[in-house]
Amino acid sequence: MTSLKAPGSRPITPFISRALKTVGVIITLSVLLDFIVLSIPYQLLDRQWQLGFATQVVDRGIVPLVGLALLFTGYWVDSTSGQPRERPAWWKNLQLWAAILASVMGLMYILIFPLHLNNVRLNGATMQERVGKEAEQAETKLNQQLSGALQQQRAQIAQLLNASDAQLDQAVQANQLSQPEAEQIKSFKKSPESVGPFLEKQAQTLQAKGQTEIRSRKEDAQKAAQTESLKSGLRIGLGSLLLAVGYIIVGWTGLRVME
């Protein structure tokens, strides 16, 4: 096959090959540098760091793959130019190192798949546990608030029981009490033993309402945590598998071509 030529100019095949190799190397190295820098500080045993690292390298994993593909395309252009080429020493062979890098990255993405799924599972369990503890704390706080409100209301009723009907009517006129509240106090004066059951029933109603709201928020938070875990597991897990296949194919193909 003859080299491509532009009218009245030198062959353009070397230029195309050099451009593809240069762009491929720059794309690959720039993203690898991002992987290294953005992962600082390194906390290899920390689960959150592992989750963040896996998300980062999978989200941007296609970019180095494109860079390696451009690099190998540049070598393919050389091979189709018909010009003789000398094979460099192995330690100077950029094509060999690119194939090794692709194979190593393929192995890395294979390892990321089970590691990320396990981290997502453990992180989801931790989030569920935290949501449960927050719900328990909220219920405890609710009970404390209701207990304090019950004592305060009991003291207010006891104070109002000492007031005369005329004083209660004056309090209604001054908007210090509502008419139903005044009537309730008057009924308590006739049967003081009904105060306790009334307050208990009121507290139970408020407690049931508060617990329902807390448990509803707990269920919503748990469902949201499960959804996020599922999305992360599917997106990053399956993405790492696809990238592993792509890198391994590119790496092994590159090694076979040089045989």
Structural overview:
The chain has 259 residues and is mostly helical. The chain has one domain (13-257). 81% of the residues lie in helices and 0% in strands. The chain is built from seven helices and no strands. The protein has helices at 13-38, 47-59, 62-79, 94-161, 165-173, 179-190, 195-257. Helix 3 (62-79) runs antiparallel to helix 4 (94-161). The longest helix has 68 residues, at 94-161. It is rod-shaped. The model is unreliable at 6-10 (pLDDT under 50).
Give a summary of the structure in a few sentences:
This protein has 259 residues and is mostly helical. The protein has seven helices and no strands. 17% of the residues are buried.
Percentage of β-strand residues: under 5%
Rg from Cα:
37 Å
Mean pLDDT: 85
Q: Pairing-aware structural class of the strands and helices? A: mainly alpha
Low-confidence stretches: 6-10
- For this structure, the quaternary state is single chain
Shape: rod-shaped
Kindly state the number of beta strands: 0
List SSEs in N-to-C order: HHHHHHH
Query: N-to-C terminal Cα separation, in Å?
Result: 22 Å
Count of individual domains: 1
Sheet having the most strands? none
Assign a percent range to the helix content: over 70%
Tally of alpha and pi helices = 7
